[in-house]
Amino acid sequence: MFLLGFAFDLDKKTHTLLVTRVYPQSPASQAGLSVGLTIQKIESVPTAGKTLAECAVLLRANGSPKVRLELVNRERKETNTVELTRGKFLTSG
Known about the structure:
Blueprint: E1 6-10, E2 17-22, H1 27-30, E3 38-42, E4 45-46, H2 52-60, E5 66-73, E6 78-85
Antiparallel strand pairs: 1-2, 3-4, 3-5, 5-6
């Protein structure tokens, strides 16, 4: 989560990085992230071929309060870039 408000995992079939959970009232939620989006790039670095651990390092590597993600919605065939600002939020369940 890294105070961004989303969880991710590698899709076992496509080996792509997917958003698996978005916490309400989090920076990810406020930026419009939703479950099932593919994270194609983190800070302009492609996620293809990376492990979960490598992607986690990319998410926190720059030390900046902001993280830029390139997301793909496969259903709509859209690519979108969002910038998340780390922040505190409450989670439930």
